[in-house]
Design a protein that fits this description.
The protein has 9 helices and no strands. By secondary structure, it is mainly α.
Length: 213
């Protein structure tokens, strides 16, 4: 089975671009690396075995590790508030996990609806939580190769929709500002934005169910 985890060489390259202004391509590569980490974390938490442990490279150090840790931390909070939204994604969308086209179309429909009213870090975290929830469903239903499709799909969505927004904020490291300040009013800002995305997520579920399959 092809391994999801990136090589140490690739990880070093991804970390290095955090020290300068990243290009579009680099932002997408970072997005996919973060997605792999997020998915791997959720697979472990769900107790799902899908690859040999010895092939799993450790999470890289530096700023990439910090960004990944914060993304997971915010994801934990988001999933704690609305756990049912990010579980059994395939069942909520009523889709088959055997078709790459169906999985891709469903994920992109949800992603588009999440960001209908604009982009916030809360919504970005929500996007990753949806991707991970869908990935867990795929592995549980004996479709582990589909995880790669989800990662690539998220990367493509970032390229088309989020890259400009990310560049204005200096890249992925900007997410660290979500937890630097302990002021409750500031901390709640991203949560409120994410909670608002729940409505868009549910609208997306309805949207995906509309087309005849």
């Amino acid at each position: 089975m092809e391994v999801l985890r990136r090589s140490s060489v690739f990880a070093a390259e991804v970390m290095e671009v955090f020290d300068r202004s990243p290009t579009d391509k680099e932002l997408v590569s970072q997005a996919k690396a973060l997605c792999r980490d997020y998915i791997n974390s959720r697979l472990i938490r769900a107790g799902v075995s899908w690859s040999k442990p010895e092939y799993n490279a450790p999470v890289p150090g530096g700023k990439l590790a910090e960004v990944s840790a914060i993304l997971l931390r915010l994801g934990d909070e988001l999933e704690y508030i609305r756990p049912n939204v990010y579980r059994n994604i395939a069942r909520q969308l009523n889709i088959s996990l055997h078709s790459e086209t169906v999985v891709t179309d469903a994920f992109l429909a949800v992603a588009a609806q999440i960001f209908t009213a604009g982009i916030t870090w809360g919504k970005v975290v929500s996007l990753y939580a949806v991707a991970a929830g869908l990935a867990v469903d795929c592995v549980r239903h004996a479709q582990p190769a589909m995880v790669h499709t989800i990662v690539d799909c998220l990367g493509e969505f970032v390229r088309k929709t989020l890259v400009t927004w990310l560049k204005r904020r200096g890249g992925w490291a900007d997410i660290t500002k979500c937890v630097v300040n302990t002021d409750p009013s500031l901390r709640s800002h991203w949560l409120v934005a994410a909670i608002c995305s729940f409505g868009h997520f549910l609208k997306a579920i309805f949207f995906v169910l509309l087309p005849e399959r």
